[in-house]
Write a structure and sequence with these properties.
about 180 residues, Rna Polymerase Sigma Factor, Chain: A
C-alpha cells in the first residue's frame, strides 16, 4: 500500500485500516532506526510503541508537506533523542557516562545476534553524540542521500557532511583502540 493510499484511508475516516497499513509498512525500518540508538531490543520496542502512539494521536495533523516516512522518521528520531537525554541524566546520577552504559548494553543484550565485528561497531556508535549518531545511522545503515537527510533532519547538506565525517572519525578511533 502506498503512502497516498494510507492517507486516503485516514481522510475517509478508516482510521484503524490506515494505522494498520502504516504500522505494517514502516515498523521494521523504524524499529531498526531506534534499535541503533538504544542498543537494546526491549528499549527499541518500547520506543517504537511510543512513536506509533504519537503517530496515532497526530496523524490528522500530517499536512503532506514531506513524505510520510520523513514525518515518521522525524518523530522516531525525536523520541530516540529524548530517550538518550533521559538516559544521560540517569547515567550522570549513577556517576557513569551514557556512552559506557550503551556500550555495556550492546555486550549484555540477549537479542543481539551480530558477530563480534558488528558488536564492536555498535559499541563505537554508542560513543557518538545524539546528532552525530543520527547522521551516522542514516548514512551508514540507511544509505540515505544527504539531500534527503537534510529534509528529514531540517539541516543543510554541508553541516550533515561535517557531522558524518566527524562521526566516522570517532568510530574509527574507537575501533582502532580495540584492535
Amino acid at each position: 500500500m502506498t503512502d497516498k493510499d494510507i492517507i486516503k484511508l485516514h481522510r475517509e475516516g478508516r482510521f484503524e485500516e490506515a494505522f494498520d497499513a502504516l504500522v505494517k509498512a514502516y515498523s521494521e525500518r523504524l524499529y531498526w532506526h531506534l534499535r541503533h540508538f538504544t542498543a537494546s531490543h526491549d528499549d527499541a520496542d518500547d520506543l517504537l510503541q511510543e512513536v506509533f502512539i504519537k503517530v496515532w494521536t497526530q496523524f490528522a495533523s500530517f499536512r503532506g508537506e514531506s513524505a510520510l516516512f520523513t514525518w515518521l522518521w522525524r518523530i522516531a528520531s525525536n523520541e530516540a533523542i529524548s530517550w538518550l537525554r533521559k538516559k544521560k541524566v540517569r547515567a550522570a546520577l549513577e556517576f557513569d557516562s551514557i556512552e559506557n552504559v550503551l556500550s555495556l548494553r550492546v555486550q549484555d543484550d540477549p537479542w543481539f545476534d551480530g558477530d563480534e565485528a558488528e558488536r564492536k561497531l555498535q559499541q563505537a556508535i554508542a560513543t557518538l553524540s545524539g546528532k552525530e549518531k543520527e547522521v551516522f545511522l542514516l548514512r551508514y545503515y540507511e544509505d540515505m542521500p544527504y539531500e534527503q537527510m537534510a529534509s528529514v533532519l531540517d539541516s543543510t547538506v554541508g553541516s550533515l557532511k561535517v557531522l558524518y565525517h566527524n562521526a566516522v572519525t570517532k568510530v574509527k578511533k574507537v575501533l582502532d583502540k580495540e584492535s
